[in-house]
Amino acid sequence: MDSKVLIDECNKAGVKLKNSALASITPEERDIVIDYLQKQDQPAEGGSDQTEQAAMAPQREPQKMRTIKAMTSRPQPSRSSQKARIEEENPELEEEASSADIEQPEEEAEAAVAEQTAVETDAPAQEVSEPAATEEQAEEAPKSKDETKPETDQGMSREDYVPAGGAPTSSIREMKPIGSPRSSKPQSKSKKNTALPSVAAPPAYKQPVIPKQKKKEEKAQKPEVRLTADILEQKSPLAAHLAQHSEQKKRDKDRDLQDDDSKQRRGSLSLVEARKQRREQRKEGRRGFNTEGGEQQDVVGRRPRRSKRKHDSSNIVHKTEAEVELPMTVRSLSEAMGRPAKTIMSIMFKEFGEMVTINQIIEEDTALAVAMELGVDLTFKKQKGALELVEEIVEQEDAPEDLVTRPPIITVLGHVDHGKTTLVDTLRNSKVVEGEAGGITQHIAAYQVEYNGHKLTFVDTPGHAAFSEMRSRGANVTDMVVLVVAADDGVMPQTAESISHVKASEVPMVVAMNKIDLPDINEQKVLQELTAQNVLPAEWGGETEVVRVSALQGTGLDNLLETLLLTAELHELKANPNRPAVGVCLEGFRDEGRGSVAWLIVQKGTLRIGDAVICGKSYGYIRAMYDDQDQQIEEAPPSTPIKVTGLDSVPGAGDHFVVVGDIEQARELAEERRHEGRTDVLSRHSGGPRTLDDILGSAREGAIQDLPLIIKADTPGSLEAIRSEINKFEHPEVRVKILHEGIGGVNESDVYLATASNAIVVAFHVVAEDRAMSLATQEDVEIRRYSIIYEVVDDIRAALEGLLRPELVQEQTGRALVLQTFSISRFGKIAGCRILNGTINRNDRVHLIRDQKILNQYPIASLKREKDDVKEVREGMECGILLSGFNDIKEGDLLEAFRINEVKRTLDSSS
């Protein structure tokens, strides 16, 4: 079959192929084409015997053939003559061979054997000689007689064969095909196909199963609803509206047609007639709205005005009270008060001259003024900050049945060097005072003493003037106060200050008159001075107990402790140990091995290891707790002084600590408090002129000299005390500028900051790191170390006084009277004078006095005695004086000589 015919048959069978002889098809498509061709051939060959024979022919399996040795062929005629002879005998053989080459697969592995044997074989013989033939060859072989004839050369007889080695021909068996050939015609030689790799047989293809279509169900019949006369007479509720709408559309359409006609006619009108027509249309448009009936008629040209809805404002009830949340805008204030925003904006413009927008934030004072204008009682709802939440937890009241007796917290107050720390050391058998620099207490501390089975907590405070804040904190956390007064000194300034702290805190006080073992004491004087401070002793009829003690000898300490226990029993000091702990931070510092350490005292509840705590701007878990003897403990009941570790930073002295639910809440509260503190620091350090008036004022007054300082201390309390003392230095010409303050030693960043700002580094009870010390030496930065606070104060005062400009003081040295004047053209007028008193020096300046009035002051240009220049002239001698810049000197003038001296000023002196 021709390739073109085969392609047409494939297309008819439903297999779309390219119009090319080399087009390939899949095995499934091949089966479809074969089935189609068989169906086409059945009517034509329905009764033929060949089809029956082909169907009834037995199919034999190919036998295994033995290997045939190579044999030489005899001389054969040339290919051209042989081919011509074959074409003459079989003219249609060439076309059959070409069609067989297209359909036969290209996997002929045994083609060489067929050429050597040159035996005429039929289709079954060919399958045996070519075992690698594909399944397609086996199926196409019996289909057509012409398609299965391979192309072969002319057969040769046995007599023509000559073996290669000259062996006799009798040893070679004649090769005959198995089975009977279907045709006696010589088969054409098959074309040698290209060897291809073996490919697995394609999988069996199953025709898709077409599901049977279900019978279509008939649709349910709808009930027949007949329209009665009543239904037909009913009208739609929108019938009137639809009719009106259709009429309006019809009128609009007619008007558009009229406008088109008028536009068409307008071209034929003159200018005057067209203008007149436009005027008439405008008049009709103005008359087109009937105001009496309120109905809109046909309007041509102009759109009718809309009638505005009038509100009756007389029945509106305005609010008299409103609550607004901060921060507030004009919109939120308007919504809260129930007033229009434009009313609020107009009031702000009239009263304050401010033009605001509806989304602009307004202050509380402005909102209150606007509310007063509108007659509204305005209240503000503020969000609770971290400080308010902590205060609520601290001030939370406990149920009376949960309260138990707790030890009293006793604060020891008094003047410096009156024996406060020595008294506490004697009570707890320690030597704390020996470790303090200068023998004075510079840190607040807390200790617990046990006496007769009862515990007492003592808070020791510094007595120096610089530690006023520490004494104030000690008085605020205490239940009672022991005021230590030395019997030899009496009431001193810090004693009076401590009395004021006690009165402010409204706690009971016991006076301990110390140093009674010293000679020359005057107890009556001490009692009188206490009475002068409104502290009336009990022995004089007052309420304050005065106990005579000696801290060094231990005299009277038992009486003091019994008095304190009795006072605590009278006041019934109780607390709830089962609630979350609440207390105060007395002091904080940084330890190299423990990190941030806080000295706390528990007021309510019980503090345990693992609690999440917020203390001021610090937060963290309690990782370890130590008592006043530095022994580790697991929990701290009320009135227990402890040292804790685990906070992220050193807390501030005087900050309240509370136990919160989790660490996240503690972190949020601490971050909020840090933000508030950062804002305060920025507002405090934002010095310098801000407005033009400030700049001009500072220019007139002269530049203020700043003393930049970097302060590093061991505890927040010490830092607070130094800052408090520095803030006391006030002078219009100099001031202290604290660039940085912190807890811990001096590090490299402090030195770099000091280098950039020419600052002095103050290290109080701390040392500098090694690298910071070497860097300071390299950069020439001064690091001053102190252990006593009043030394810091004195040095800062001296540095500030050194920045003050010295005071210029005139000192009179002598007086001279002008007796005669001499005029010299080269120099001018020279005054011949006699020294009345003192001496006149060449470097002095003189006041020119005439008629008892000082005309001016001039420097001396030349001073001569006779003809010699001299440095000074003494009393009673005569000399010649030439003034610089003045040439009108006369006889009888008085010259008063003086020199200017620079005198160092102090902060206490007036500027």
Automatic annotation (TrEMBL):
Q: Which organism was this protein described from?
A: Gimesia chilikensis
Region: Disordered; residue ranges are: 38-314
Bias class Low complexity marks the residues at 111-123
Compositionally biased intervals (Polar residues)? 73-83
| Stretches with biased composition (Basic and acidic residues) | 140-161, 215-227, 244-264
Compositionally biased, Acidic residues: which spans?
89-110
Any single GO molecular-function term of the entry would be:
GTP binding
What is this protein's name? Translation initiation factor IF-2
Q: Which Pfam families match?
A: EF-G_D2, GTP_EFTU, GTP_EFTU_D2, IF-2, IF2_N
The entry assigns this protein to a family as follows: Belongs to the TRAFAC class translation factor GTPase superfamily. Classic translation factor GTPase family. IF-2 subfamily.
The compartments listed are: Cytoplasm
Give start-end positions of Basic residues composition bias. Answer: 302-311
- Does the keyword Cytoplasm belong to this entry? yes
Assign the protein's first listed, main location to one coarse class. Answer: cytoplasm
